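Work Package 3 (structural annotation) set out to generate three-dimensional models for the target panel prioritized at the project kickoff. During this period the team completed the workflow that converts sequence records into discrete structure tokens, so that structures can be stored uniformly alongside our sequence database. As a representative example, we reproduce one entry of 379 residues exactly as it appears in the project archive.
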Amino acid sequence: MEIIRGKIRSAKKVVIYGPEGIGKSTFAAQFPEPLFIDTEGSTSELNVARTKRPSSWTMIIEQIKEIMNTPGLCKTLVIDTIDWAENLCVEHVCQTRGKKGIEDFGYGNGYVYSKEEFGRFLNLLSDVKDKGINVVLTAHAQLRKFEQPDELGAYDRWELKLGKKTASQTAPLIKEWSDMLLFANYKTIVVATDDQGKKHKAQGGKRVMYTAHHPCWDAKNRYGLPEETEFSYSVIAPIIEDVATTKELDNTPAENVNNDNANVNSTDVSISSDNKVSETKESVSVPASENKKTDSGSNALRKLNDLMTVYSVTEKEIQEAVASRGYYPIDTPIQNYDEGFINGCLVAAWSQIYEVIKKTKESRGEFVNAEPNEIPFNF
């Protein structure tokens, strides 16, 4: 039996939550070479690298897998925010089982399915961390009345702002998963304005960060941080080790991600030392009939179109896969597919659909790209 003693250098799993506008995204942007999966579109004013905003839970999972399997792409993965990501998770659980809402399952089964799916998501993020990539989750905070079972009376308490009815299932998972749970808030001091102490006013408003549990909020750390400190990345910077990615451990420079000789269909991406991402569009000649994509007028079609773009799948290939399973005639336009079918059978079960498309192309002797295209970046 192998026994390992002492501290183990590894990437970190960090959760940062607080009220809106306090600076969670800006805080996360100071981690080493961050790459954002921006679920709510809040990083448009930050000079950071980001993936295309995910429109479905399936797209988030595929983006994370691509980041995990592309050494040197980043040193920190930021999910901003996890509460918006959870909404996509619940939507996915309902769509895959043909339900309109989480309560349509009955007997609380919907919440169990949601917890299981979210647990698999956190396991995937742990795999990312094992690759030497820090994982940061940001979340909003909300006040909720809380009553101790052994005390009389209730009091206000800050909690992770997750789904109103799913938070009791997913919030504990996130808190247990994290190495650091940091709560950011404005510190307000109430002072009396008269001699009798009957009138008061609030002063202060300084941004602070809490790192340890308190009756009024959840927080934790394993590194001996002060319980209350300024809300600044410099406080935790010594702890966030600049862990080498798998590619760097193999002595391969990160700059080699952008390979001049690589055969890439969409975008070559390189990351410089100042965390800026540069793109070089490669012109590819594709027949107009093969490059046709679905109209993104509806939400369901937009989600499908995003996946088709990442995997270079054409409308014709989708029609062939759907027809081979007997769902719709091959000449039925995708715009005429039922929205529930697109969400439940195409978007939610994309991996199975893509396997059908790959086998069809292989049977015709066509080239099949084993991996999805490079993740498109925005500024």
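DSSP finds ten helices and twelve strands in the chain.
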